[in-house]
Amino acid sequence: MAHALLQSVLAPWWAAQLLTGAKSFADNPLIGSDRLNRRGLHAWRVSLAHRMAQRRRAKLAADPDPADRAGFDRDGFVAWNDFLPSATFESLREQVLAYRGPAREMVQGDTITRRYAIDPAALRAIPAVRAFIADRRWRAMSRYVASFDIEPLLYIQSILPHRHDAPPDPQVNLHADTFHPTMKAWLFLEDVDLSTGPLTYVAGSHRLTPERLAWEHRRSLAVLRQDDRLSARGSLRIERDELAGLGLPQPTAFAVPANTLVIADTFGFHARGLATTRSTRIELWAYSRRNPFLPFTGLDLWSLPGLAERRIPLLWKTHDIYRRLIGQPWADVGRKLPAED
To answer: Which residue in 203, 236, 194 sits closest to 218, CA to CA?
Structure first.
């Protein structure tokens, strides 16, 4: 009786989430409904979200360089070597490595991911980061890929593999972050080689082809029957031997020199490479994700100066306060250097 009453109370909330970025098959019984997905609910949400993203990108298409835009439209990513002027990059790298700021960490498998918010305190300590934030190419392409004219969330990120005696990091499995186009970016502050587990990306997998849409439909029917927690939460995993059936190549590994910037649509399949050594990868990391069904590109109060740089601490604090309701995977570990082991 109580369960039925709770379901009736929550039903309007679950229904409203269908027109948001809510993605978890496990947490929303409508999104995870076998009956509704057999009738095409998940495929409809995917298709509509991509049509909306295409319309928003069309409004932003004049800003990126045409060659960069064409490369992204083809591959799902753009990569620039020597992105910042060398003197600016060296100042940025030195300031980041010397920054002992408030850090948050998450453990997944044998890997620690450590993040620092680029907030007002970090901006004062790392003034060189302002050159990156203001760069025209960065601003134009990050917004085009995200399909929204908003400020991305920006962090310092350290990836530390092989820090625990545990199964491999689940992020080494190819996956899409969610069912709609989103933007992530990496400015690598040190050289990245194959042994340290570089970013990998399946070129062209951001496109919603008939084969990809059919795969999305099949996965929506099977995901809750499998022992795959992250897929059930809406970040669908794919095996490498499935790629050819979708007309896709094997992943590209970004074993790249320092000062390389990669911007990607993470509806495309991507993963961390499997690190073979105990290492530390340090980067500026950004992402942008908004309700995929919004018809407009801007009108984001959180992008205003004075608010944009305070979003991450507010998000962390909110999750700290309401951890029992919304969870908080990012542990406060005090002040650390980005390369600190």
So the answer is: 236
